DNA sequence: TCAAACTTTCAAAAAATATTGAAAGTTTAA
DNA sequence: TTAAACTTTCAATATTTTTTGAAAGTTTGA
């Protein structure tokens, strides 16, 4: 496989993976492109490489910056803005875990908690609702801890130990 | 909060969570409904509760069964089919982890492997592509192991130990 | 201050995805 | 074998999401 093939294969794979995880194609592809680009890219560059419009590029870059995985960079003497991705994949994972926890897991945990705390009126259906949402609540909290502590942190010795232990 | 409110809050939360993870609303809601239902439900029951069409119900039930988290059940003397969800949330998580690994992670790992093994022609861009896809490959493999071994298996002592260790 | 060089916004259009419902298919019991 | 009781399929439709592109906004340097 030649460089250009490998590159486009990677970008398109990342793009379709993204949609599978609720991230839109353009956003995932921009991220992929920046991740493998040795130099920061301008908006023009990105638009050209991925054949997407200026508006689309602008909006998705903003989202990637909100996620904390893409940064603006300024080249001296250049008016326009350049963008780079977080290049350390450990740090990338940590950031994504943190944001998904904040945006999805924590609100879910809150609701599972509310729902599982309704008054037990003694009926089967109420008992089942309480039982299952309690179980989900506990599981979600465990997941939250694992995402933030195991994947996260600079430490990472836990992950290494784990992988060794379990491989 | 009363039972009915709690129930519909749970179902709608699960539904919107689903869409965030690339699972459609109806599928996630059917799953939620079955999860908290003490009795197996018929297609009629589901259609009525969730206000969705027969076709939609049929297709999404089939998908849930493909995922291995919903089962057909037959009541004696009844012609129609009834459905239940996997009720053990540990087992549910295990099954979901296994399926996501198989459908998403493993194909991705394969492609990352292919891409990261292109010939190094000495250019910066090739070096960067190889470096980053190698790093992602390693990370994806670690994630795969964790999903299948840590969340999965009946063992689960690892998870418990981990949570205790890290909480 | 102006205007060139950019970026952002957002209404409209396009694309992707989910849903419906009726026809076709299947199973069962008599 | 038939017909009632169900389930599945799938083309058409509806809904949601993404993308576009041009106008509005911003920043900078002269």
Automatic annotation (TrEMBL), chains A, B:
Record keywords, A-Z: DNA-binding, Transcription, Transcription regulation
Gene Ontology MF terms in the entry: DNA binding; DNA-binding transcription factor activity
Domain HTH marR-type: 28-73
InterPro entries for this protein: ArsR-like_HTH, HTH-GbsR_regulator, HTH_MarR-typ, MJ1563, WH-like_DNA-bd_sf, WH_DNA-bd_sf
One Pfam family this sequence matches: MarR_2
Stated family: Belongs to the GbsR family.
Cross-referenced PANTHER family: HTH-TYPE TRANSCRIPTIONAL REGULATOR MJ1563-RELATED
Designated name of the protein: HTH-type transcriptional regulator
Source lineage: Bacteria, Pseudomonadati, Bacteroidota, Flavobacteriia, Flavobacteriales
């Amino acid at each position: 496989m030649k460089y250009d093939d490998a590159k486009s294969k990677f970008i398109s794979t990342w793009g379709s993976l993204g949609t599978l995880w609720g991230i839109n194609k353009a956003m995932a592809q921009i991220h992929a492109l920046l991740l493998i680009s040795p130099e920061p890219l301008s908006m023009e560059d990105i638009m050209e490489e991925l054949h997407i419009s200026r508006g689309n590029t602008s909006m998705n870059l903003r989202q990637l910056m909100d996620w904390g995985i893409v940064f603006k960079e300024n080249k001296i003497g250049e008016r326009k803005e350049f963008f780079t991705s977080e290049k350390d994949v450990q740090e990338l994972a940590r950031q994504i875990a943190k944001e998904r926890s904040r945006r999805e897991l924590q609100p879910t945990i809150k609701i599972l908690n509310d729902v599982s705390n309704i008054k037990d009126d003694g009926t089967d259906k109420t008992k089942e609702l309480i039982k299952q949402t309690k179980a989900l609540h506990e599981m979600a909290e465990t997941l939250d801890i694992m995402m933030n502590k195991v994947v996260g942190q600079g430490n990472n010795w836990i992950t290494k130990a784990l992988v060794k232990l379990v491989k």
